[in-house]
Design a protein that fits this description.
The complex is a heterodimer of chains A (about 700) and B (about 160). Chain A has 27 helices and 22 strands. Chain A is of the alpha+beta class and about 700 residues long. Chain A has five domains: about 5-140, Four Helix Bundle (Hemerythrin (Met), subunit A), CATH 1.20.120; about 145-315, Alpha-Beta Plaits; about 330-395, Orthogonal Bundle (Helix Hairpins); about 395-575, Heat Shock Protein 90 (2-Layer Sandwich); about 580-709, OB fold (Dihydrolipoamide Acetyltransferase, E2P) (Beta Barrel), CATH 2.40.50.180. The longest helix of chain A has 27 residues, at about 330-360. Chain B has helices at about 5-20, 75-80, 155-160, and strands at about 5, 20-30, 35-40, 40-45, 60-65, 70-75, 95, 105-110, 110-120, 125, 140-145, 145-150. Chain B has one domain (about 5-160): OB fold (Dihydrolipoamide Acetyltransferase, E2P). In chain B, a hairpin with a 2-residue loop joins β2 (about 20-30) and β3 (about 35-40). The interface of A and B includes residues 591, 637, 676 and 701 of A.
């Protein structure tokens, strides 16, 4: 079967399941007895196995199968969850992730069989074989009841068929059948989770069972089952001549049926069970009587019991099932196309704007014209917002993997630490979310590895033994801020300063003049990144330049504040959206450029006489601050205009604490512009961040003020 | 204004059937020389329009244009072939080329002359070994009506070091 068309879905879902498993196993580690968690893990592992099998990834299937076996035993209570086992499980997840990555890159799972892991899993299984030695023979004795017992443990309630309330006529039928020497069985059929047409499968089961016996009662009712009004399983009471196995076999032969359990029905037990059920559920069943009626004689009671059983069944999954995001997977290309349309709409608006400013002479129809423009403007803005929202995803998908990472680091580094996260629901543009993972991971590692002190030092300083790392995300105006905080050692500024001198990054004189903040900024230099020994001295410096460049490529910025002995705060600030920005349009020479409004501080008219020379560079003194001037025509190789005015138009831009004045020739005004990529051929110009299409169809380049300063 | 060649529509059929025998080329003129571009690579041919210069780029990268809302870089074929700077005339065209994995690129040429169908036998491949300098942009020479047409290796032309 050609399954390649499902590959994408498979990958998506596998990742979801893996993430789920990671989270759940972490939970399990702190709360080994939690049955809900164990069930959830089992379910995830099981679906993973099924999916891998369907897609033909045998190795992946075999590994998940072994994991599932372990979970199954844990679920049955035959194995206890031990720290050792958690470690193995995590390694398995890593191995699965590797498979997934392989599949993603080459559609092939690779050749790693992960035999050592599988062996350790089987060891875990066998290890309990001896422990649970007494349980074993008992099990084999009551072979028939074993599945039933399992059912009991999973649902922690009596056999489902015992819970069915029978009315008197059914009771008579059953009694009669028993008297005639026929067998009465209770059967529970579990449909496979991935089954799409559950009702159809159920129907086939009904048919198959009816060939070997007679269905007396069905719970939920036959009608409900037909309407797919059941979760994953349904229970039947069957009268048959043959043995139980025959009935079970008939049901099992239907494909996509996961499990069929059954046992002879004891009417006494049934009675007790039904009474109990009836008593406790009476008020509910009365209210929830399903409107659909079946042709079966058992209609009323079946419907009642269905209603009675349902709340009991449903309550649990509702309580323990994680709130799964209701997502619609949209092909990003389709979104891009939509985005493109919006862009064109904005372009159309812009052309109207420029037409209106040109045709200002005809005042007659100008007011209605303006009205149209305003309407168009509001439409485009709304459309823009809604499209942007489609592109937004919560950062949850990225940060979810961090608790696991911190746990692993904690073990590896032998430091106790805890990660506290808030604001996982904060939304960012999909492209940003995809990219933000690595930098965040770097920062967290940094905090864990270098920020937090060893237990002894922490004790000396009177800090709690367990170090804390915080990851907070929140929206701040048009930005999203993500903070990584730790209560560790903080940055030793002097150590960094000395190291910088030692490495020749700065001269001792320069170093003496640097403020603490500037010294800390040195950490972001590439030269500081590779050096292992720096980490020993300063405690910082691994790959921070990578973090910085990544964040900046997303038009964001990263900052660090630190207090020696108390900890550090790394702040990442990212724009909410990337595609459309407010910009100031300017003219340099005879070329038009756009400057993002975000980086602009003020616009100034500076008389030529106020320009001073410092170290042969032009600067201005603006309200007490000395700001260097950048002549854009020189930077951009634009021939200067011949007429020199008495004053210059200067755009003051700011990047962090640094400011610069960009000298331009003319101002056009503020405009909402759509950022277009310049493509791969034109990437080298570092201070051009993109292009935009103007109202007249021409292209203006977008200046990256950050790169100019 | 635009001459769309709809390469996707008609060609593959024909291409599959007869690719072993003939290839269609668009013949362009640069100065006095004629060059051929495989028609399957061509997206659109448009008239000269305003090209926005991008600073700090090699001279042959003339800048970018707006083609139906997409920003496309434009290269001067003349400068790429070490010929004299372009002179924009009425016949100057921008050939927008679609390459396998990359974005579209526009090539500025003096004139688009015609579409020719070359027999594979009439194409003399230039072996890889002898490629150097600007010759490396040409991967074959075709004969058509007694004239020689140098055939561009588009990947070499657009891929630049």
């Amino acid at each position: 079967m050609d399954v390649s068309q499902y590959l994408e879905i498979f990958l998506d879902e596998t990742k979801e399941h893996l993430q789920n498993l990671n989270t759940r196993i972490l939970e399990l580690e702190s709360d080994p007895e939690n049955a809900d968690t164990i069930n959830e893990i089992f379910r995830a592992a099981h679906s993973l196995k099924g999916m891998a099998g369907t897609m033909g990834y045998k190795r992946m299937q075999s590994l998940t199968h072994n994991m599932e076996n372990v979970f199954s035993e844990v679920r049955n209570g035959t194995i206890k969850v031990l720290p050792d086992m958690i470690d193995v499980l995590f390694q398995c997840l890593d191995a699965l992730e590797e498979y997934t990555n392989n599949i993603q890159s080459s559609a092939d799972e690779g050749t790693n069989d992960n035999e050592p892991l599988i062996k350790r899993l089987t060891d875990i299984l066998n290890g309990t074989g001896t422990d649970a030695g007494q349980a074993q023979p008992e099990k084999s004795e009551k072979k028939e009841e074993a599945p039933a017992k399992e059912e009991q443990q999973t649902s922690s309630e009596p056999n489902k068929w015992d819970a069915i309330k029978l009315d008197s006529s059914q009771r008579v039928v059953i009694q009669e059948a028993a008297n005639q020497g026929k067998n009465v069985y209770g059967i529970n059929v579990l449909v496979h989770e991935s089954c799409i047409l559950k009702a159809a499968r159920a129907f086939l089961v009904f048919k198959a069972v009816e060939e070997v016996g007679e269905i007396i009662v069905s719970d939920p009712s036959a009608q409900d089952v037909e309407d797919e009004k059941f979760d994953r399983d349904f229970t039947l009471i069957v009268i048959a001549d043959g043995p139980l196995e025959k009935v079970i076999k008939a049901a099992e032969n239907v494909s996509e049926i996961e499990k069929v359990t059954g046992a002879p029905l004891k009417l006494d037990a049934q009675e007790g069970g039904s009474d109990e059920g009836a008593e406790s559920k009476k008020p509910v069943s009365g209210a929830e009587r399903t409107p659909s009626q079946t042709a079966a004689p058992a209609a009323a009671s079946a419907a009642k019991t269905a209603a009675a059983a349902k709340p009991a069944e449903n309550r649990k999954p509702a309580a323990n099932k994680p709130v799964v995001n209701r997502t619609v997977r949209v092909d990003i290309e389709k979104l891009d196309a939509l985005m493109n349309l919006v862009s064109e709409l904005i372009i159309a608006k812009n052309s109207l704007v420029s037409a209106s400013s040109q045709g200002q002479g005809n005042t007659a129809d100008n007011s209605s014209f303006n009205e149209h423009i305003e309407y168009l403007a509001s439409v485009t803005t709304n459309l823009h917002e809604s499209v942007m929202k489609v592109r937004m995803v919560p950062i949850e998908s990225v940060v979810n993997k961090f608790p696991r990472m911190i746990r692993d680091l904690s073990k590896k580094l032998n430091k106790k630490m805890e990660l506290y996260m808030t604001g996982e629901e904060t939304e960012l543009d999909r492209t940003v979310v995809d990219e933000i993972g690595d930098p965040l991971m770097h920062l967290l590692r940094n905090s864990a590895d270098h920020g937090l002190e060893s237990a002894e030092v922490r004790a000396q300083r009177g800090k709690p033994e367990v170090g804390s790392i915080f990851l907070d995300a929140y929206q701040d105006g048009n930005n999203v801020v993500i903070e990584v905080r730790d209560d560790g050692n903080g940055i030793d500024v002097e150590a960094v300063r000395n190291k910088a001198i030692e490495r020749g990054t700065v001269t001792p004189e320069q170093a003496a003049n640097l403020s603490d903040k500037e010294v800390i900024d040195l950490l972001f230099l590439p030269s500081f990144s590779t050096a292992k020994e720096v980490t020993d001295v300063s405690g910082r410096g691994v790959g921070l330049d990578v973090v910085k460049s990544k964040i900046e490529s997303l038009s964001g910025e990263v900052e660090v504040k630190s207090k020696l002995g108390e900890g550090s705060v790394w702040t990442i600030r990212l724009p909410l959206t990337l595609a459309i920005i407010q910009a100031l349009m300017v003219v340099v020479g005879d070329e038009k450029y756009a400057i993002s409004l975000g980086s602009i501080q003020t616009l100034e008219d500076i008389p030529l006489s106020e320009i001073k020379l410092v170290q042969n560079k032009e600067v201005i003194n603006l309200r007490g601050t000395v700001i260097p001037l950048i002549r854009l025509n020189e930077v951009l190789d634009v021939p200067p205009r011949e007429t020199e005015n008495e004053s210059l138009i200067v755009v003051i831009v700011k990047k962090g604490d640094k400011m610069a004045g960009l000298v331009i020739d003319e101002l056009i005004g503020q405009q909402e512009i759509v950022i277009k990529s310049l493509g791969r051929y034109i990437k080298r110009c570092k201070f051009i961040s993109g292009a935009t299409i103007l109202g007249d169809g021409e292209i203006a380049l977008i200046l990256d003020a950050n790169a100019l300063i | 204004m635009e001459l769309s060649l709809n390469t996707a529509g008609n060609l593959p059929e024909e291409g599959v059937k007869r690719s072993s025998e003939t290839i269609q080329y668009i013949v362009i003129r640069l100065g006095q020389e004629q060059y051929g571009i495989d028609i399957r690579n061509i997206d659109t041919i448009i008239r000269m329009q305003h090209i926005t210069r991008v600073p700090k780029m090699p001279a042959y990268l003339k800048g970018v244009i707006n083609l139906r809302g997409v920003v496309i870089p434009v290269m001067s074929m003349r400068l790429r072939m070490d010929l004299a700077e372009d002179e924009v005339t009425k016949s100057t065209r921008i050939i927008v080329v679609k390459l396998d994995q990359d974005d579209n690129v526009g090539f500025l040429v003096d004139e688009v002359k015609e579409v020719v169908t070359l027999n594979v036998d009439d194409i003399e491949k230039i072996p890889d070994g002898s490629k150097d300098g600007k010759a490396s942009l040409i991967n074959g020479v075709g004969k058509h009506n007694g004239e020689l047409i140098s055939l561009f290796d588009l990947n070499a032309v657009s891929l630049d070091d």
